[in-house]
Protein backbone atom coordinates (compact mmCIF):
# COMPACT_ATOMS: atom_id res chain seq x y z
CA UNK A 1 0.00 0.00 0.00
CA UNK A 2 1.42 3.32 -1.14
CA UNK A 3 0.28 6.90 -0.57
CA UNK A 4 1.25 9.47 -3.21
CA UNK A 5 0.86 13.21 -2.59
CA UNK A 6 0.12 15.07 -5.79
CA UNK A 7 -0.64 18.50 -7.16
CA UNK A 8 -1.53 18.92 -10.84
CA UNK A 9 0.15 17.89 -14.06
CA UNK A 10 3.62 16.65 -12.97
CA UNK A 11 2.30 14.89 -9.92
CA UNK A 12 -0.52 13.30 -11.88
CA UNK A 13 1.99 11.74 -14.28
CA UNK A 14 3.82 9.91 -11.50
CA UNK A 15 0.50 9.01 -9.89
CA UNK A 16 -0.45 7.49 -13.24
CA UNK A 17 2.80 5.55 -13.32
CA UNK A 18 2.15 4.26 -9.81
CA UNK A 19 -1.39 3.28 -10.83
CA UNK A 20 0.10 1.34 -13.74
CA UNK A 21 2.31 -0.78 -11.48
CA UNK A 22 0.12 -1.09 -8.36
CA UNK A 23 -3.21 -2.86 -7.96
CA UNK A 24 -6.12 -0.49 -7.24
CA UNK A 25 -6.28 -1.37 -3.54
CA UNK A 26 -2.56 -0.64 -3.16
CA UNK A 27 -2.50 3.06 -4.06
CA UNK A 28 -4.12 6.16 -2.60
CA UNK A 29 -3.39 9.43 -4.38
CA UNK A 30 -3.81 12.34 -1.97
CA UNK A 31 -4.45 15.56 -3.84
CA UNK A 32 -3.92 19.23 -3.03
CA UNK A 33 -7.03 21.39 -2.71
CA UNK A 34 -5.25 24.74 -2.20
CA UNK A 35 -5.76 25.56 -5.90
CA UNK A 36 -9.52 25.01 -5.66
CA UNK A 37 -11.69 28.04 -6.22
CA UNK A 38 -15.14 29.29 -6.99
CA UNK A 39 -15.55 30.63 -10.50
CA UNK A 40 -18.74 31.45 -12.42
CA UNK A 41 -20.60 30.06 -9.43
CA UNK A 42 -18.90 26.69 -9.83
CA UNK A 43 -16.51 24.82 -7.56
CA UNK A 44 -13.41 24.13 -9.57
CA UNK A 45 -10.76 21.70 -8.27
CA UNK A 46 -7.93 21.82 -10.80
CA UNK A 47 -5.57 19.35 -9.14
CA UNK A 48 -8.23 16.76 -8.36
CA UNK A 49 -9.52 16.97 -11.91
CA UNK A 50 -6.06 16.68 -13.43
CA UNK A 51 -5.29 13.59 -11.36
CA UNK A 52 -8.72 12.08 -12.04
CA UNK A 53 -8.60 12.73 -15.79
CA UNK A 54 -4.99 11.50 -16.02
CA UNK A 55 -5.75 8.24 -14.21
CA UNK A 56 -8.86 7.82 -16.36
CA UNK A 57 -6.71 8.17 -19.49
CA UNK A 58 -8.81 11.19 -20.49
CA UNK A 59 -6.36 14.05 -19.87
CA UNK A 60 -5.43 16.41 -22.65
CA UNK A 61 -1.90 15.28 -23.54
CA UNK A 62 -0.78 18.68 -24.80
CA UNK A 63 -1.83 20.77 -21.80
CA UNK A 64 -1.79 18.13 -19.06
CA UNK A 65 -5.04 19.61 -17.70
CA UNK A 66 -8.53 19.41 -19.13
CA UNK A 67 -9.97 16.65 -21.28
CA UNK A 68 -8.47 15.33 -24.50
CA UNK A 69 -10.49 16.45 -27.50
CA UNK A 70 -12.64 18.82 -25.49
CA UNK A 71 -14.31 21.70 -27.31
CA UNK A 72 -14.67 25.41 -26.51
CA UNK A 73 -18.23 26.28 -27.50
CA UNK A 74 -19.15 27.29 -23.96
CA UNK A 75 -16.18 29.65 -23.71
CA UNK A 76 -16.94 31.23 -27.09
CA UNK A 77 -20.58 31.79 -26.12
CA UNK A 78 -19.54 33.10 -22.71
CA UNK A 79 -17.27 35.63 -24.35
CA UNK A 80 -20.07 36.69 -26.65
CA UNK A 81 -22.41 37.49 -23.77
CA UNK A 82 -19.66 39.29 -21.87
CA UNK A 83 -18.68 36.69 -19.27
CA UNK A 84 -15.25 36.11 -17.74
CA UNK A 85 -13.10 33.97 -20.00
CA UNK A 86 -9.66 34.13 -18.40
CA UNK A 87 -10.05 30.64 -16.94
CA UNK A 88 -10.63 28.12 -19.71
CA UNK A 89 -13.38 25.57 -19.16
CA UNK A 90 -13.96 23.03 -21.92
CA UNK A 91 -17.47 21.90 -22.80
CA UNK A 92 -17.06 18.38 -21.42
CA UNK A 93 -15.00 19.57 -18.48
CA UNK A 94 -17.92 21.84 -17.54
CA UNK A 95 -19.97 18.77 -16.64
CA UNK A 96 -17.49 17.97 -13.87
CA UNK A 97 -17.71 21.46 -12.38
CA UNK A 98 -21.47 21.82 -12.68
CA UNK A 99 -22.20 18.38 -11.26
CA UNK A 100 -19.61 18.70 -8.48
CA UNK A 101 -21.04 22.06 -7.43
CA UNK A 102 -24.49 20.51 -7.31
CA UNK A 103 -23.40 17.37 -5.44
CA UNK A 104 -21.40 19.35 -2.85
CA UNK A 105 -24.70 20.60 -1.44
CA UNK A 106 -25.14 17.15 0.08
CA UNK A 107 -21.82 15.33 -0.19
CA UNK A 108 -18.23 15.85 0.87
CA UNK A 109 -15.58 16.58 -1.75
CA UNK A 110 -14.17 13.09 -1.04
CA UNK A 111 -17.53 11.50 -1.82
CA UNK A 112 -18.00 13.54 -5.00
CA UNK A 113 -14.49 12.64 -6.16
CA UNK A 114 -15.12 8.96 -5.46
CA UNK A 115 -18.39 9.13 -7.42
CA UNK A 116 -16.75 10.75 -10.42
CA UNK A 117 -13.78 8.36 -10.35
CA UNK A 118 -16.13 5.39 -10.33
CA UNK A 119 -18.04 6.80 -13.30
CA UNK A 120 -14.83 7.54 -15.21
CA UNK A 121 -13.36 4.11 -14.55
CA UNK A 122 -10.58 5.26 -12.18
CA UNK A 123 -10.05 2.27 -9.89
CA UNK A 124 -7.26 3.61 -7.67
CA UNK A 125 -8.28 5.85 -4.78
CA UNK A 126 -8.05 9.58 -5.51
CA UNK A 127 -8.77 11.60 -2.37
CA UNK A 128 -8.64 15.28 -1.55
CA UNK A 129 -6.24 15.91 1.30
CA UNK A 130 -9.11 17.63 3.09
CA UNK A 131 -12.85 18.09 2.67
CA UNK A 132 -12.51 21.50 4.29
CA UNK A 133 -11.75 24.74 2.58
CA UNK A 134 -8.04 25.49 2.12
CA UNK A 135 -7.15 28.31 -0.26
CA UNK A 136 -3.68 29.30 -1.33
CA UNK A 137 -3.31 33.06 -1.46
CA UNK A 138 -0.27 34.67 -3.02
CA UNK A 139 1.36 37.76 -1.54
CA UNK A 140 2.96 39.52 -4.49
CA UNK A 141 4.60 42.81 -5.35
CA UNK A 142 1.21 43.73 -6.85
CA UNK A 143 -0.73 42.87 -3.71
CA UNK A 144 -2.58 39.85 -2.39
CA UNK A 145 -3.92 37.58 -5.14
CA UNK A 146 -6.09 34.51 -4.91
CA UNK A 147 -4.22 31.57 -6.36
CA UNK A 148 -5.93 31.31 -9.74
CA UNK A 149 -5.79 35.08 -10.12
CA UNK A 150 -2.03 34.80 -9.77
CA UNK A 151 -1.59 31.54 -11.63
CA UNK A 152 -3.97 31.81 -14.57
CA UNK A 153 -5.24 35.36 -14.88
CA UNK A 154 -1.83 36.97 -14.24
CA UNK A 155 0.13 33.98 -15.64
CA UNK A 156 2.46 33.99 -12.62
CA UNK A 157 3.86 37.38 -13.68
CA UNK A 158 3.80 39.16 -10.28
CA UNK A 159 6.76 38.56 -7.99
CA UNK A 160 5.89 36.23 -5.14
CA UNK A 161 6.69 37.55 -1.65
CA UNK A 162 5.02 34.74 0.23
CA UNK A 163 2.15 32.30 0.35
CA UNK A 164 -0.73 32.18 2.78
CA UNK A 165 -2.77 29.01 3.16
CA UNK A 166 -6.17 30.22 4.23
CA UNK A 167 -8.13 27.71 6.24
CA UNK A 168 -5.25 25.24 6.55
CA UNK A 169 -4.90 25.72 10.33
CA UNK A 170 -8.46 24.68 11.02
CA UNK A 171 -8.87 22.15 8.19
CA UNK A 172 -9.08 18.48 9.06
CA UNK A 173 -7.44 15.79 6.98
CA UNK A 174 -9.94 13.81 4.93
CA UNK A 175 -11.10 10.51 6.39
CA UNK A 176 -9.92 8.60 3.34
CA UNK A 177 -6.43 10.05 3.74
CA UNK A 178 -6.39 9.10 7.44
CA UNK A 179 -7.66 5.65 6.58
CA UNK A 180 -4.79 5.16 4.12
CA UNK A 181 -2.22 6.55 6.61
CA UNK A 182 -3.39 4.09 9.24
CA UNK A 183 -3.50 1.15 6.88
CA UNK A 184 -1.44 -1.74 8.34
CA UNK A 185 -0.09 -2.57 4.89
CA UNK A 186 1.20 0.95 4.19
CA UNK A 187 4.72 0.59 2.80
CA UNK A 188 5.78 4.06 1.68
CA UNK A 189 4.72 7.62 1.06
CA UNK A 190 5.73 9.49 -2.09
CA UNK A 191 5.72 13.22 -2.78
CA UNK A 192 5.18 13.35 -6.54
CA UNK A 193 7.17 15.90 -8.59
CA UNK A 194 4.75 18.71 -7.79
CA UNK A 195 5.46 22.30 -6.88
CA UNK A 196 6.70 22.20 -3.27
CA UNK A 197 5.29 25.65 -2.46
CA UNK A 198 2.01 25.51 -4.35
CA UNK A 199 1.08 21.83 -4.31
CA UNK A 200 2.81 20.06 -1.42
CA UNK A 201 3.05 22.88 1.17
CA UNK A 202 -0.72 23.52 1.21
CA UNK A 203 -1.21 19.88 2.19
CA UNK A 204 1.54 19.97 4.82
CA UNK A 205 0.03 23.15 6.25
CA UNK A 206 -2.91 21.13 7.56
CA UNK A 207 -1.75 20.29 11.11
CA UNK A 208 -3.28 16.82 11.10
CA UNK A 209 -1.58 15.93 7.82
CA UNK A 210 1.80 17.11 9.02
CA UNK A 211 1.36 15.29 12.31
CA UNK A 212 0.46 12.06 10.49
CA UNK A 213 3.53 12.35 8.32
CA UNK A 214 5.77 13.03 11.29
CA UNK A 215 4.35 10.02 13.12
CA UNK A 216 4.71 7.71 10.11
CA UNK A 217 6.37 4.31 10.36
CA UNK A 218 7.20 4.02 6.65
CA UNK A 219 9.71 5.81 4.43
CA UNK A 220 8.73 9.09 2.81
CA UNK A 221 10.32 9.80 -0.55
CA UNK A 222 10.09 13.03 -2.58
CA UNK A 223 10.69 13.34 -6.32
CA UNK A 224 12.20 16.64 -7.46
CA UNK A 225 10.02 18.76 -9.74
CA UNK A 226 13.15 20.77 -10.61
CA UNK A 227 15.41 19.28 -13.28
CA UNK A 228 18.63 20.98 -14.27
CA UNK A 229 17.58 24.19 -12.52
CA UNK A 230 14.21 24.42 -14.24
CA UNK A 231 10.67 23.31 -13.63
CA UNK A 232 9.33 20.88 -16.22
CA UNK A 233 6.11 22.90 -16.23
CA UNK A 234 4.70 25.78 -14.24
CA UNK A 235 6.26 28.35 -11.97
CA UNK A 236 8.15 26.10 -9.50
CA UNK A 237 11.56 27.56 -10.46
CA UNK A 238 10.35 31.16 -10.54
CA UNK A 239 8.69 30.89 -7.14
CA UNK A 240 11.62 29.00 -5.63
CA UNK A 241 13.83 31.89 -6.70
CA UNK A 242 11.48 34.67 -5.60
CA UNK A 243 11.10 33.09 -2.17
CA UNK A 244 14.89 33.05 -1.84
CA UNK A 245 15.58 29.34 -2.16
CA UNK A 246 18.21 27.85 -4.48
CA UNK A 247 16.63 26.97 -7.82
CA UNK A 248 17.84 23.41 -8.04
CA UNK A 249 16.84 19.91 -7.05
CA UNK A 250 19.03 20.48 -4.00
CA UNK A 251 16.98 23.54 -3.09
CA UNK A 252 13.89 21.33 -3.11
CA UNK A 253 15.63 18.62 -1.08
CA UNK A 254 16.50 21.29 1.44
CA UNK A 255 12.87 22.38 1.79
CA UNK A 256 11.86 18.82 2.59
CA UNK A 257 14.90 17.84 4.65
CA UNK A 258 13.22 17.65 8.06
CA UNK A 259 10.45 15.46 6.73
CA UNK A 260 11.65 13.02 4.07
CA UNK A 261 13.77 9.87 4.15
CA UNK A 262 14.87 9.83 0.54
CA UNK A 263 15.03 12.14 -2.45
CA UNK A 264 14.83 11.35 -6.16
CA UNK A 265 16.67 13.62 -8.59
CA UNK A 266 16.98 13.53 -12.31
CA UNK A 267 19.94 12.06 -14.15
CA UNK A 268 20.76 15.63 -15.26
CA UNK A 269 21.36 16.49 -11.61
CA UNK A 270 23.41 13.41 -10.72
CA UNK A 271 26.29 15.57 -9.47
CA UNK A 272 24.02 17.00 -6.75
CA UNK A 273 23.18 13.59 -5.30
CA UNK A 274 26.26 13.25 -3.09
CA UNK A 275 25.70 16.62 -1.41
CA UNK A 276 21.97 16.15 -0.71
CA UNK A 277 21.17 16.00 3.02
CA UNK A 278 19.44 12.60 2.72
CA UNK A 279 19.71 9.35 0.75
CA UNK A 280 19.10 9.90 -2.94
CA UNK A 281 18.13 8.07 -6.05
CA UNK A 282 19.19 9.31 -9.45
CA UNK A 283 16.57 8.42 -12.06
CA UNK A 284 15.00 9.66 -15.24
CA UNK A 285 12.32 11.88 -13.71
CA UNK A 286 11.17 13.56 -16.93
CA UNK A 287 8.05 11.65 -17.97
CA UNK A 288 7.40 11.99 -21.69
CA UNK A 289 5.24 8.90 -22.13
CA UNK A 290 3.43 6.16 -20.19
CA UNK A 291 6.55 4.02 -20.14
CA UNK A 292 8.57 6.84 -18.49
CA UNK A 293 5.82 7.13 -15.87
CA UNK A 294 5.90 3.42 -15.10
CA UNK A 295 9.68 3.26 -15.00
CA UNK A 296 9.91 6.19 -12.60
CA UNK A 297 7.16 4.70 -10.43
CA UNK A 298 8.99 1.38 -10.23
CA UNK A 299 12.31 3.07 -9.45
CA UNK A 300 10.75 5.21 -6.72
CA UNK A 301 9.05 2.21 -5.13
CA UNK A 302 12.21 0.15 -5.25
CA UNK A 303 14.18 3.05 -3.75
CA UNK A 304 11.64 3.48 -0.94
CA UNK A 305 11.74 -0.25 -0.17
CA UNK A 306 15.49 0.00 0.42
CA UNK A 307 15.28 2.98 2.79
CA UNK A 308 15.39 2.65 6.53
CA UNK A 309 12.09 3.30 8.21
CA UNK A 310 12.14 6.63 9.99
CA UNK B 1 -45.35 51.57 -29.51
CA UNK B 2 -46.55 47.98 -29.13
CA UNK B 3 -46.38 45.52 -26.23
CA UNK B 4 -46.35 41.82 -27.11
CA UNK B 5 -46.91 39.15 -24.46
CA UNK B 6 -45.02 35.98 -25.28
CA UNK B 7 -44.24 32.53 -24.01
CA UNK B 8 -41.77 30.34 -25.87
CA UNK B 9 -41.53 29.13 -29.45
CA UNK B 10 -44.86 30.21 -31.02
CA UNK B 11 -44.91 33.55 -29.27
CA UNK B 12 -41.28 34.21 -30.14
CA UNK B 13 -42.08 33.80 -33.84
CA UNK B 14 -44.70 36.53 -33.80
CA UNK B 15 -42.45 38.69 -31.60
CA UNK B 16 -39.79 38.24 -34.28
CA UNK B 17 -42.29 39.29 -36.95
CA UNK B 18 -43.19 42.38 -34.92
CA UNK B 19 -39.49 43.18 -34.48
CA UNK B 20 -39.09 42.95 -38.25
CA UNK B 21 -41.76 45.58 -38.91
CA UNK B 22 -41.31 47.88 -35.89
CA UNK B 23 -38.34 50.07 -34.98
CA UNK B 24 -36.53 48.96 -31.80
CA UNK B 25 -38.03 51.75 -29.68
CA UNK B 26 -41.55 50.76 -30.79
CA UNK B 27 -41.73 47.22 -29.41
CA UNK B 28 -41.49 45.71 -25.94
CA UNK B 29 -41.78 41.94 -25.72
CA UNK B 30 -43.00 40.92 -22.26
CA UNK B 31 -42.07 37.35 -21.48
CA UNK B 32 -43.48 34.69 -19.19
CA UNK B 33 -41.28 33.57 -16.29
CA UNK B 34 -43.56 30.83 -14.96
CA UNK B 35 -41.49 28.21 -16.82
CA UNK B 36 -38.27 29.37 -15.17
CA UNK B 37 -36.60 26.91 -12.85
CA UNK B 38 -33.44 25.98 -11.05
CA UNK B 39 -31.61 23.02 -12.54
CA UNK B 40 -28.06 21.80 -11.92
CA UNK B 41 -27.65 24.88 -9.73
CA UNK B 42 -28.42 27.17 -12.66
CA UNK B 43 -31.29 29.56 -13.24
CA UNK B 44 -32.91 28.56 -16.50
CA UNK B 45 -35.45 30.87 -18.18
CA UNK B 46 -36.70 28.93 -21.20
CA UNK B 47 -39.15 31.51 -22.55
CA UNK B 48 -36.82 34.49 -22.15
CA UNK B 49 -34.04 32.58 -23.88
CA UNK B 50 -36.27 31.45 -26.72
CA UNK B 51 -37.45 35.01 -27.35
CA UNK B 52 -33.93 36.41 -27.01
CA UNK B 53 -32.34 33.81 -29.29
CA UNK B 54 -35.15 34.13 -31.84
CA UNK B 55 -34.87 37.91 -32.02
CA UNK B 56 -31.07 37.57 -32.24
CA UNK B 57 -31.49 35.25 -35.23
CA UNK B 58 -29.68 32.54 -33.26
CA UNK B 59 -32.53 30.15 -32.44
CA UNK B 60 -32.37 26.55 -33.51
CA UNK B 61 -34.83 26.45 -36.43
CA UNK B 62 -35.71 22.78 -35.98
CA UNK B 63 -36.56 22.86 -32.26
CA UNK B 64 -37.51 26.51 -31.84
CA UNK B 65 -35.56 26.55 -28.54
CA UNK B 66 -31.82 26.47 -27.96
CA UNK B 67 -29.14 27.80 -30.28
CA UNK B 68 -28.70 26.89 -33.93
CA UNK B 69 -25.68 24.63 -34.43
CA UNK B 70 -25.17 24.12 -30.71
CA UNK B 71 -23.30 21.00 -29.62
CA UNK B 72 -23.93 18.45 -26.86
CA UNK B 73 -20.50 17.73 -25.37
CA UNK B 74 -21.55 18.99 -21.95
CA UNK B 75 -24.60 16.73 -21.89
CA UNK B 76 -22.58 13.69 -23.01
CA UNK B 77 -19.99 14.32 -20.30
CA UNK B 78 -22.70 14.95 -17.71
CA UNK B 79 -24.28 11.62 -18.55
CA UNK B 80 -20.92 9.91 -18.21
CA UNK B 81 -20.41 11.20 -14.67
CA UNK B 82 -23.97 10.33 -13.70
CA UNK B 83 -25.64 13.75 -13.81
CA UNK B 84 -29.25 14.53 -14.69
CA UNK B 85 -29.73 14.71 -18.43
CA UNK B 86 -33.49 14.93 -18.89
CA UNK B 87 -33.30 18.66 -19.60
CA UNK B 88 -31.08 19.31 -22.62
CA UNK B 89 -28.56 22.14 -22.32
CA UNK B 90 -26.36 22.82 -25.34
CA UNK B 91 -22.72 23.80 -24.89
CA UNK B 92 -23.20 27.39 -26.06
CA UNK B 93 -26.56 27.70 -24.37
CA UNK B 94 -24.83 26.79 -21.09
CA UNK B 95 -23.01 30.13 -21.17
CA UNK B 96 -26.36 31.92 -20.88
CA UNK B 97 -27.42 29.89 -17.85
CA UNK B 98 -24.08 30.01 -16.05
CA UNK B 99 -23.59 33.73 -16.60
CA UNK B 100 -27.19 34.58 -15.75
CA UNK B 101 -26.99 32.62 -12.51
CA UNK B 102 -23.81 34.49 -11.62
CA UNK B 103 -25.17 37.93 -12.56
CA UNK B 104 -28.44 37.39 -10.67
CA UNK B 105 -26.45 37.66 -7.44
CA UNK B 106 -26.26 41.40 -8.07
CA UNK B 107 -28.73 42.23 -10.83
CA UNK B 108 -32.43 41.82 -11.53
CA UNK B 109 -33.59 39.39 -14.20
CA UNK B 110 -34.60 42.42 -16.28
CA UNK B 111 -31.08 43.82 -16.09
CA UNK B 112 -29.48 40.49 -16.94
CA UNK B 113 -31.82 40.05 -19.91
CA UNK B 114 -31.03 43.56 -21.14
CA UNK B 115 -27.30 42.87 -20.83
CA UNK B 116 -27.54 39.63 -22.80
CA UNK B 117 -29.78 41.17 -25.47
CA UNK B 118 -27.30 44.01 -25.97
CA UNK B 119 -24.43 41.52 -26.33
CA UNK B 120 -26.43 39.37 -28.76
CA UNK B 121 -27.50 42.30 -30.89
CA UNK B 122 -31.19 42.23 -29.95
CA UNK B 123 -32.29 45.85 -30.26
CA UNK B 124 -35.96 45.54 -29.33
CA UNK B 125 -36.80 45.42 -25.62
CA UNK B 126 -37.23 41.92 -24.19
CA UNK B 127 -38.41 42.08 -20.59
CA UNK B 128 -39.49 39.49 -18.07
CA UNK B 129 -43.04 40.14 -16.90
CA UNK B 130 -41.65 40.17 -13.36
CA UNK B 131 -38.29 40.12 -11.61
CA UNK B 132 -39.87 38.15 -8.81
CA UNK B 133 -40.22 34.42 -8.57
CA UNK B 134 -43.32 32.98 -10.25
CA UNK B 135 -43.41 29.24 -10.78
CA UNK B 136 -46.05 27.29 -12.63
CA UNK B 137 -46.89 24.08 -10.84
CA UNK B 138 -49.03 21.42 -12.47
CA UNK B 139 -51.61 19.43 -10.55
CA UNK B 140 -51.87 16.11 -12.37
CA UNK B 141 -53.37 12.69 -11.94
CA UNK B 142 -49.86 11.64 -10.86
CA UNK B 143 -49.55 14.36 -8.24
CA UNK B 144 -48.11 17.85 -8.11
CA UNK B 145 -45.31 18.43 -10.61
CA UNK B 146 -43.07 21.42 -11.10
CA UNK B 147 -43.54 22.77 -14.59
CA UNK B 148 -40.41 21.40 -16.25
CA UNK B 149 -40.93 18.07 -14.50
CA UNK B 150 -44.30 17.91 -16.20
CA UNK B 151 -43.30 19.50 -19.50
CA UNK B 152 -39.87 18.04 -20.23
CA UNK B 153 -39.17 15.15 -17.89
CA UNK B 154 -42.66 13.64 -18.19
CA UNK B 155 -43.23 15.03 -21.73
CA UNK B 156 -46.70 16.30 -20.74
CA UNK B 157 -47.92 12.72 -20.31
CA UNK B 158 -49.75 13.11 -16.97
CA UNK B 159 -53.32 14.40 -17.12
CA UNK B 160 -53.56 18.02 -16.01
CA UNK B 161 -56.13 18.71 -13.29
CA UNK B 162 -55.17 22.31 -12.71
CA UNK B 163 -52.35 24.83 -12.60
CA UNK B 164 -50.99 26.70 -9.62
CA UNK B 165 -48.93 29.83 -10.14
CA UNK B 166 -46.67 29.95 -7.10
CA UNK B 167 -45.55 33.42 -6.15
CA UNK B 168 -47.80 35.17 -8.66
CA UNK B 169 -49.99 36.78 -5.98
CA UNK B 170 -47.08 38.58 -4.37
CA UNK B 171 -44.98 39.17 -7.50
CA UNK B 172 -44.66 42.71 -8.81
CA UNK B 173 -44.68 43.54 -12.50
CA UNK B 174 -41.22 44.44 -13.81
CA UNK B 175 -40.40 48.14 -14.05
CA UNK B 176 -39.69 47.85 -17.75
CA UNK B 177 -43.12 46.34 -18.34
CA UNK B 178 -44.78 49.12 -16.33
CA UNK B 179 -42.73 51.70 -18.21
CA UNK B 180 -43.96 50.31 -21.53
CA UNK B 181 -47.58 50.12 -20.29
CA UNK B 182 -47.45 53.77 -19.27
CA UNK B 183 -45.78 54.94 -22.45
CA UNK B 184 -47.80 57.78 -24.00
CA UNK B 185 -47.21 56.36 -27.47
CA UNK B 186 -48.53 52.89 -26.66
CA UNK B 187 -50.88 51.87 -29.48
CA UNK B 188 -51.77 48.25 -28.86
CA UNK B 189 -51.10 45.13 -26.83
CA UNK B 190 -50.78 41.72 -28.45
CA UNK B 191 -51.01 38.27 -26.89
CA UNK B 192 -48.77 36.20 -29.15
CA UNK B 193 -49.92 32.67 -30.11
CA UNK B 194 -48.62 31.17 -26.88
CA UNK B 195 -50.23 28.60 -24.63
CA UNK B 196 -53.01 30.46 -22.79
CA UNK B 197 -52.70 28.29 -19.68
CA UNK B 198 -48.94 27.87 -19.49
CA UNK B 199 -47.59 31.08 -21.03
CA UNK B 200 -50.19 33.85 -20.83
CA UNK B 201 -52.07 32.89 -17.63
CA UNK B 202 -48.92 32.97 -15.44
CA UNK B 203 -48.40 36.59 -16.53
CA UNK B 204 -52.06 37.53 -15.97
CA UNK B 205 -51.92 35.92 -12.53
CA UNK B 206 -49.69 38.75 -11.33
CA UNK B 207 -52.26 41.19 -9.90
CA UNK B 208 -50.39 44.29 -11.07
CA UNK B 209 -50.15 42.96 -14.62
CA UNK B 210 -53.83 42.11 -14.77
CA UNK B 211 -54.74 45.51 -13.29
CA UNK B 212 -52.58 47.29 -15.87
CA UNK B 213 -54.26 45.39 -18.69
CA UNK B 214 -57.73 46.10 -17.31
CA UNK B 215 -56.91 49.81 -17.03
CA UNK B 216 -55.42 49.99 -20.54
CA UNK B 217 -56.47 52.67 -23.02
CA UNK B 218 -55.37 50.78 -26.12
CA UNK B 219 -56.76 47.69 -27.88
CA UNK B 220 -55.64 44.26 -26.73
CA UNK B 221 -55.53 41.60 -29.42
CA UNK B 222 -54.85 37.86 -28.96
CA UNK B 223 -53.65 35.47 -31.62
CA UNK B 224 -54.92 31.89 -31.33
CA UNK B 225 -52.28 29.23 -30.71
CA UNK B 226 -54.87 26.63 -31.72
CA UNK B 227 -55.32 26.03 -35.43
CA UNK B 228 -57.91 23.59 -36.73
CA UNK B 229 -58.33 22.09 -33.26
CA UNK B 230 -54.64 21.47 -32.72
CA UNK B 231 -51.68 23.25 -31.21
CA UNK B 232 -48.90 24.06 -33.68
CA UNK B 233 -46.43 22.89 -31.05
CA UNK B 234 -46.59 21.84 -27.43
CA UNK B 235 -49.44 20.70 -25.21
CA UNK B 236 -51.91 23.59 -25.63
CA UNK B 237 -54.61 21.37 -27.13
CA UNK B 238 -54.10 18.53 -24.65
CA UNK B 239 -54.23 20.88 -21.65
CA UNK B 240 -57.20 22.80 -23.05
CA UNK B 241 -59.06 19.50 -23.25
CA UNK B 242 -57.94 18.17 -19.87
CA UNK B 243 -59.03 21.40 -18.19
CA UNK B 244 -62.46 21.01 -19.79
CA UNK B 245 -62.33 23.80 -22.37
CA UNK B 246 -63.27 23.34 -26.03
CA UNK B 247 -60.18 22.48 -28.07
CA UNK B 248 -60.57 25.12 -30.74
CA UNK B 249 -59.64 28.69 -31.49
CA UNK B 250 -63.06 29.57 -30.13
CA UNK B 251 -62.21 27.87 -26.85
CA UNK B 252 -59.18 30.16 -26.58
CA UNK B 253 -61.23 33.23 -27.51
CA UNK B 254 -63.60 32.26 -24.73
CA UNK B 255 -60.78 32.12 -22.18
CA UNK B 256 -59.76 35.65 -23.08
CA UNK B 257 -63.23 37.10 -23.65
CA UNK B 258 -63.36 39.39 -20.60
CA UNK B 259 -59.98 40.88 -21.38
CA UNK B 260 -59.36 41.26 -25.11
CA UNK B 261 -60.77 43.56 -27.79
CA UNK B 262 -59.99 41.46 -30.82
CA UNK B 263 -59.05 37.89 -31.71
CA UNK B 264 -57.01 36.54 -34.58
CA UNK B 265 -57.77 33.07 -35.89
CA UNK B 266 -56.26 31.05 -38.65
CA UNK B 267 -57.73 30.80 -42.15
CA UNK B 268 -58.47 27.13 -41.34
CA UNK B 269 -60.84 28.32 -38.64
CA UNK B 270 -62.57 31.04 -40.71
CA UNK B 271 -65.99 29.47 -40.03
CA UNK B 272 -65.56 30.15 -36.29
CA UNK B 273 -64.99 33.89 -36.75
CA UNK B 274 -68.66 34.90 -36.90
CA UNK B 275 -69.48 33.14 -33.63
CA UNK B 276 -66.52 34.49 -31.62
CA UNK B 277 -67.61 36.76 -28.76
CA UNK B 278 -65.43 39.68 -29.99
CA UNK B 279 -64.22 41.22 -33.27
CA UNK B 280 -62.01 38.83 -35.19
CA UNK B 281 -59.40 38.79 -37.89
CA UNK B 282 -58.89 35.75 -40.05
CA UNK B 283 -55.24 35.47 -41.09
CA UNK B 284 -52.56 32.95 -41.85
CA UNK B 285 -51.30 32.38 -38.30
CA UNK B 286 -49.03 29.42 -39.05
CA UNK B 287 -45.54 30.91 -39.33
CA UNK B 288 -43.27 28.70 -41.39
CA UNK B 289 -40.70 31.33 -42.35
CA UNK B 290 -39.66 34.94 -41.66
CA UNK B 291 -42.02 36.24 -44.28
CA UNK B 292 -45.00 34.50 -42.57
CA UNK B 293 -43.92 36.13 -39.30
CA UNK B 294 -43.78 39.59 -40.82
CA UNK B 295 -47.08 39.18 -42.64
CA UNK B 296 -48.87 38.05 -39.50
CA UNK B 297 -47.29 40.89 -37.51
CA UNK B 298 -48.48 43.44 -40.05
CA UNK B 299 -51.96 41.97 -40.19
CA UNK B 300 -52.25 41.93 -36.39
CA UNK B 301 -51.08 45.54 -36.11
CA UNK B 302 -53.45 46.68 -38.83
CA UNK B 303 -56.32 44.80 -37.15
CA UNK B 304 -55.51 46.38 -33.77
CA UNK B 305 -55.41 49.85 -35.33
CA UNK B 306 -58.97 49.38 -36.56
CA UNK B 307 -60.39 48.27 -33.21
CA UNK B 308 -62.20 50.57 -30.84
CA UNK B 309 -60.24 51.45 -27.77
CA UNK B 310 -61.62 49.68 -24.72
TrEMBL record, chains A, B:
SUPFAM superfamilies, per the entry: CofD-like (SSF142338)
Superkingdom classification of source: Bacteria
Keyword Magnesium on entry: yes
Sorted UniProt keywords: Magnesium, Transferase
Pfam families for the chain: CofD
Claim: Magnesium is one of the keywords in the record: yes
Enzyme category, top tier: transferase
UniProt cross-references to InterPro entries, sorted A to Z: CofD (IPR002882), CofD-like_dom_sf (IPR038136), FbiA/CofD (IPR010115)
MF terms in GO: LPPG:FO 2-phospho-L-lactate transferase activity
Enzyme Commission code(s) on record: 2.7.8.28
PANTHER family according to UniProt: 2-PHOSPHO-L-LACTATE TRANSFERASE (PTHR43007)
NCBIfam families: F420_cofD
Name of the molecule in the record: Phosphoenolpyruvate transferase
Taxonomic source organism: Cupriavidus laharis
Amino acid sequence: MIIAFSGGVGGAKLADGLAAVLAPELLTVVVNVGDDFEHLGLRICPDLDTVMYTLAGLANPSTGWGLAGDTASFMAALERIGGETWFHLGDRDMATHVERTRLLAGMSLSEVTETFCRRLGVRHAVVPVSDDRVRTTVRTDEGLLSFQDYFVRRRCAPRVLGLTLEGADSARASERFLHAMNHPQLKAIVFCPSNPHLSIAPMLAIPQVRACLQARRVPLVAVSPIIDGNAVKGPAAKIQKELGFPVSALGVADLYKDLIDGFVLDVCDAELAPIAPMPTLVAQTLMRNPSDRRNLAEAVLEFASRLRKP
